[in-house]
Amino acid sequence: MSASKRSTPRDCPPHRLSGDRIREGRVDGESVFFVTDDTAQPLARTSLQDEGLWERHHLQRWALEHPELLGEDLYVVTDEFDRWEDASGQAVADRLDVLSLDPEGRPVVVELKRGPAPRLTDLQAVGYAAMVSRFTVEDLVEAHTAFLSRRGEPTEPDEVRAILSGHAGGKKLSDHLLRSPAIVIVAESFAPAMTSSVVWLSEQGVDITLREFRLYRSAAGLLLTVSQTWPVRDVEEFTVRPRRQDADAVREERTFPSLPWSSEDLRALLVRLEGAKQEPTVLAMLDLAADAEDRRVGWEDLVARSGRSPAQVRSDLAHLTMIAKADFGRENWPVTVNWRAGVLSYIIEEPTAEAWRQVRRQTSATTGNEG
pTM above the 0.70 mark? Predict the structure, then answer.
């Protein structure tokens, strides 16, 4: 990215980088020259710190104005996101630099560093990705709505959902895609100890990218370049691609079919949940949906009936997905998730509802006999 059209540093301070002065460049170890007519002047390397530039007020602002600094075809959802809470509903003091969306509708967690990336930056980014994986589509829409409002662009949630869906090629956003965030780390440099960790994470199926920026100074001003350090594009066919095929194979092994839930399945699920902290949420969802005339239960009713906080209910439902895969070999819940006019609800098909009611009656009768 360049900012080389200033007349002198005094005329335009380094932090006054404007949109028409930023251009994407590639360096990857090459020398950078400032060319005037028939002369080429090598540029001296400098740093954000030496120039009095800061991570949040400068680097992050440039990334918001020019998402191509973070990678190709990314759409910024929000920045400085800090609305986290643990399973007990307590606030968690963490602040995510930038959250973006890729063209497939998958979230991309972005971690920015003003200088060289500290040793545990990759673990920090993985931690943020784990938290973002608990996002629902509703959370994503809410975060982007707040982001646009802060930027003086108030937008209705339905329109925001359409904007996000439009970036994903018009596909309907799904909670399933949100569970596998990608990671982008942008820093001045990366130490071998960290890049070795990143290579290993990639081999395990984690989609992680390292982007390195470099700042140069000339008499005309500053030049900012951004290049991809990992995956290594120049040798992708020989090193990265085989590893990514292995990662894809791992992901394929973890895919599961969508199967109907029989009475036996539901009875086994009831036994599996007995005494677990997720039990109130799952029972409330199935009971309310099965007993409702339209076989539907809304989010607010589910939270109220479960007696747990919204964050706990989200965690419980995420755990239900793990149970469905690990114990029942399927991707789907006994209910389906439905969005209508911005309202989240869960719908159960009549055969499943009848099977669930039968299981509950049998369980109640057994319990009564034992009493």
Answer: no
